[in-house]
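Sequence only, no structure available. Ideas?
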Amino acid sequence: MKYIKTAQTEQNNQATEVESIVKGIIEDIKTNGDEALKKYEVKFGKSDRAFRVSEEEIENCLNTIDPEQKALIDTVVERISAFAETQYKHLTPFETQFGDGITMGQRIVPIETVGAYIPGGRFPLLSSGPMVVAPAKVAGAKRIVACSPANYKGGIHPAVLYGLIKAGATDIFAIGGAQAIAAMANGTESVPPVDMIAGPGNMFVAEAKKQVFGKVGIDLIAGPSEVLVFTDESAKPGYIAADLLAQSEHDPFAKAVLVTTSEDIANESMKEVERLLGTFAEDSPAHQSWENMGEVILVDSIAEGIDYCNENANEHLHLHLTDSRSYVDQLHNYGSLFIGEDSSVVFSDKVSGTNHTLPTNKAARYTGGLWVGSYLKVVTHQEITGEGTQFLAKHATEQSNLEGLEGHKLSAQVRIK
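Reply:
I predicted one. Tokens follow.
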């Protein structure tokens, strides 16, 4: 294996400072509620507006969206919902006999109140709201509290707002950053407390989700974006370069990696990246991302490339290989897999239907991305009667006696006839 281009090893690590700032925000909002929330919205969000997005504001805002834009968002919501509904159908409750008088089973129960965080970002991302909210709606959440920064003319961008409403959000607040996470986790006079929080965000949002985990559930800690494009000599440099840059433009710290068996493809792809970057706006994050974080790696074989992919567990794994489908079963660690050169990651980012909130930083070794199951609890139950009670009581009595647990022994023993 040979590194043709390597990422910078020294990054601007603000983790300790961010952790301290976020801890202060959470404690302040927990103690002082709306008063503290307003303070941080003014300080960080530059917003002094009402937190809740009113029905009147929603109506006025939605009147500004043209029909074509609505149709795009409608398609996004429909496709994400359809995929989530299909996933839901494959989750199976059951109740089965496990011996005479022993009935056990499981139920699939929705989380009742969900908090959805939707980033503001440089541009309104039309799919971000539906990606977080629609699966919660399909799961059966009774209340979906959505927060998004008030960074568009003093409010939430109309297209983002429409997507939240269409996807099923029940309460919408123009609040951003760590303060939004703190408000949803603890509740304030204005913002209701939730049972879990989902959705992507910047380093402050990610740190806030870490710190409130336990008090509430979270989906995962995600970001910045990653893509690994794995190719052989058959790949097209133009496609490769476009796919690398698509993820690079998300964030200056986004990581785009090319792994290939062909040195010619590696060199041609790098040339194409530089050519295309010349057409990007000067302030696009893609320039800094590719320069500082981009990597190009030459491997000796497909097998070595597969090992590298599994070891690095990237968020997006895109196969530009001859007969890409034949290698799927050998790949285990990825947030989402894109099979074949035409299966652009951008399709998933926007509208294909799979979720784009995915694990980064090698978390794909132990988890997948946000899905309808993120908003569901698998809860078990049992009913023990007759012979089942006698069988289990005798076993539990003997085991509790060996373990020295008097209360456990008593609870089992009183049921022995």
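The chain is about 45% helix and 15% strand.
Hope that gets you unstuck.
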